[in-house]
Amino acid sequence: MTAAPPVWLVRGDDPVLVEDAVGKLVDRLVGDANRSETLDVFSGADYELGAVVMAAETPSMFGRRVLVAREGGRFNTDDCAEVLRYIESPSESSVIVIAWERPAVSGARLGATPRKLLSAVKAAGGLLETKAPGGGKARSQWVGEQLSALPVRLTPAAKTLVQSTLGEDLGRLVGLGATLKGVYGEGALVDAPDLAHYLGDAGSVPPWDLTDAIDDRRSKVAIDNLNRMVSGGDRHPLQVMASLITHYQRIAALSGSDVRTERDAADLLGIKGSTFPAKKALAQSRRLGPEGVARAIALLAQADVDLRGASGLDALTVTQVLVARLSRLGR
């Protein structure tokens, strides 16, 4: 029988998903025990991981203990030394859960997980990743599983509305499920008209939703996706520009080449794994033709200059104009 991990590390890009995963893990570890006797939570900017380990190694009159260390993103390799020692010689009655989330300090950034800690926890079987799949079938399947796990049942129209509105902000599913349960009751069937009021503003979308809309010459959809990336995803227009430049650099690299298959295109572009991005770039290079590709590069260059102060327009407007012009290119 495999031993239970002495330390769990829960991490991911979305703090809501991390919070939800930590809550479910703690529920499982505590079980039917009295939380006031079993669970200890460390949080804030003052505690050290050494204190968590000390608590885990201190005998408890109540038996099993679960110790949760919040805001782990502020710790570095040296801070984790005591945890690494604990993994080598853990207490049989205690388990530590480290939530690798952003520190609750204004302007604080999420630190990278120390490699030694990540390796040790993973080897012990305690690594829990919460990041949703990036795209394609894997992401759609993941979203479908999350929607099915909600405490209410959604009609197909409601599921479509949730996905189109939330975009990349899938962490909002956790709060949405709790809200709908409170309003309609557990197991209730909720349709799109009943759901719209609780969804809030449209969330961000991934960069490929923007480039796909541009490639398909759907200018209104492209500009809407751009606005969602900037307002809902907190991306600066310069970050959007970086995605567009990468997209058109791939197209330009294939323009005029003798590449005929998507596999050859992927090899030329240095794309590993799925050849789908190369397939899209190849199709777009053929549709635009050399003149269209040259025009796209010129538009990107001018917009880049304008974003850096050459134009009197604000950054979002400059990018909106660029996206509209790119959407009109093509033979």
From TrEMBL:
The keyword Nucleotidyltransferase applies. SUPFAM superfamilies: P-loop containing nucleoside triphosphate hydrolases (SSF52540), post-AAA+ oligomerization domain-like (SSF48019). GO terms for cellular component: DNA polymerase III complex. It catalyses: DNA(n) + a 2'-deoxyribonucleoside 5'-triphosphate = DNA(n+1) + diphosphate. GO terms for biological process: DNA-templated DNA replication. InterPro entries: DNA_pol3_clamp-load_cplx_C (IPR008921), DNA_polIII_delta (IPR005790), P-loop_NTPase (IPR027417). It is an enzyme of class 2 (transferase). The keyword rRNA-binding does not apply. Keywords: DNA replication, DNA-directed DNA polymerase, Nucleotidyltransferase, Transferase. Its EC number is 2.7.7.7. GO terms for molecular function: DNA binding; DNA-directed DNA polymerase activity. NCBIfam families: holA (TIGR01128). Belongs to the DNA polymerase HolA subunit family. This is DNA-directed DNA polymerase. It comes from Candidatus Neomicrothrix parvicella RN1. The lineage of its organism: Bacteria, Bacillati, Actinomycetota, Acidimicrobiia, Acidimicrobiales.
